[in-house]
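Running co-folding for iron/sulfur cluster.
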Amino acid sequence: MKTPLCDFDHEKLAELMLSMGEPKYRADQIMRHVVAFDRYDAYTDIPTRLIAALKEKYADVPLTEKTRVEASDGAVRYLFETLGGDLVESVFLPHNYGNSVCVSCQVGCAMGCVFCASGYYGFKRNLSAGEILAQVLYIARDKKSCGGVKKVVMMGSGEPLANYDETVKFIRLVTSPSGINIGMRSVSVSTSGITDKIEKLANDGFCGTLSLSLHAATDEKRKKIMRVAERYSVKETINAMKKFFDKTRRRVVIEYILIGGFNDTPADVIQVKSLLKGLCCHVNLIPLNPTDNCDLKPCSRKHAYEFCKMLNDAGVSATVRRSMGSDVAGACGQLKNRTVLESKTK
Ligand code: SF4
């Protein structure tokens, strides 16, 4: 398979140009096309002999849009097809303080969280840093007239810390001043809690926002919905988040999906408060988005606000996440799963 040009940073592109006998400034020209998500036919400032040589080994873009669903609030869920035919979802979320894009980092997911549609067909492969970056570049180009993209959230399909090297490379590419140049503080990484990699991420210089998908405050309860809880206890996971804060001084985010009758009672408030004691964090409450293959009960928005008030009264900083794009094929992974299902039944 051809390597996509967006897998290169400026330095590596410059090395490539020199190795091809080209002047170094070609790297600047090509980088501009890469950031603009141009196809080769738009490389009008590049000699045709160089384009022909590049075409032999390198792909201009690593994914194409297969379909999209647009919500009434402006959110758009995109389904992309990679060069190898894999399907990848991304979401554009418009905000008046800066539009964001939620990207996928794997094809499928091995973590098997029961409330999530992304892992329904299991794990297929890691996406390369360039394939993750391409989701941002494509959407930035598509939404240029609406202000482009200012923030990136790694909260789509896949566990970023299970694709650690490509995640770190992606963060470097997306924040590079010679690339699309998103500020590091505008990059969020969401993990189900791969504890040793949380500490490594801080040590490797990430100082954006780290979100932990907690969803239950005891090991017993968490094991019922998240396979990762079999490997790491909630205490060691929260300790890793504390170390991340100590290293970066960045307040962390605790994601908590509210599942009706499972983790939304006054007893859960006490457990959450006790577990998070001493951690500089904000709790993001998300009423469960029902998926096609999951029989967990949703929690009403009204009850979500009641639960939030109980947490606030207990001294825990928490808010209910604004529902955006809930009419763009529901939760992460569902548009892909429905598309796969439709193609099988045709
Ligand atoms: S919630 Fe995240 S880690 Fe869990 S299965 Fe879904 S994509 Fe994977």
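Result summary
Residues 109, 111-113, 116, 118-119, 157-159, 192, 213 surround iron/sulfur cluster (CB under 6 Å).
Residues 234-248 form the longest helix (15 residues).
Job closed.
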